[in-house]
Design a protein that fits this description.
Pfam families: CFAP77 (PF14825). By secondary structure, this protein is mostly helical. It is built from eight helices and two strands. 34% of the residues lie in helices and 3% in strands. The radius of gyration is 53 Å and the shape is elongated.
């Protein structure tokens, strides 16, 4: 059964999908105005004027190497507009806005301003992308060329340093030291400061002694001095050295 509506139907009643009643077994109407029944949708196919003869001939468009010049409109001269508006007697912002809408003053072109924009076309042989990485010098790696080059550089650097030292020696050869210069450079030895200790323990003597008497201590050091000559080590505490022929 079709949807029957009494009275005069407004356009909003027909074109508004929210006012449409749902029909049983039919989808909701979207109220779109569709063309007539014989209308064909899609893009029409243009007729091809070329044939097999044109397909067998390779034709390229000529390369355009000329520049396209695009004229740029000069900017407005607001200083001149404001000056002329004040001379006329306009003071408020609204009056200035109306004056600018009816009057137009452009800045004069100078030689330094670029009024022509040049658009350059890229050549057809232009290649884009990242350049290819150069090949690895395998011959230099197998022949230890980098090592030889590094050794040569180090040898040259050492020769340069030696030449500087020799030149410095020749410069300082005629300079001799006097007693005053030696005394000026001399630094008297200074005993290192003692370790920190609490004040209440500074006056208390040590309670542990390795030797019973001073005589035993002196004898032990003398024996160590005579025995260390045949032992190894910086202080003569090592094992005995074998006899040398």
């Amino acid at each position: 059964m079709s949807n029957i509506t009494l009275g005069v139907q407004r356009e909003s009643l027909i074109n508004n999908p929210l006012l449409q009643k749902v029909e049983l077994g039919r989808p909701l109407r979207r109220c779109f105005t569709l063309p007539h029944d014989g209308f064909t949708y899609g893009k029409p196919n243009d007729g091809k004027t070329s044939g097999a003869a044109d397909a067998l001939v390779w034709r390229t468009a000529p390369v355009q190497t000329t520049f396209q010049r695009k004229e740029k409109k000069a900017p407005r001269d607001f200083q001149s507009l404001n000056k002329s508006a004040v001379q006329v007697g306009l003071t408020t912002a609204q009056e200035h806005f109306q004056y600018r809408a009816t009057h137009d003053v452009r800045k004069a072109e100078s030689g330094t301003e670029k009024t022509i924009q040049k658009l350059k076309r890229l050549p057809p042989t232009m290649v884009f992308g990242v350049p290819t990485r150069p090949s690895t010098p395998v011959y230099d790696l197998l022949g230890h060329k980098y090592q030889d080059r590094w050794l040569e550089e180090r040898h040259k650097a050492e020769e340069t340093m030696r030449a500087r030292q020799i030149q410095k020696r020749h410069v300082d050869k005629n300079i001799y030291e006097t007693r005053a210069s030696l005394l000026r450079k001399f630094q008297p030895p200074v005993d290192p400061p003692p370790f920190w200790q609490m004040s209440k323990f500074q006056k208390i003597p040590s309670q542990i002694e390795s030797f019973r008497t001073d005589k035993a201590k002196t004898g032990a050091f003398k024996h160590h001095a005579t025995d260390s000559t045949s032992r190894k080590g910086a202080f003569g505490h090592g094992i005995y050295e074998p006899a040398k022929s």
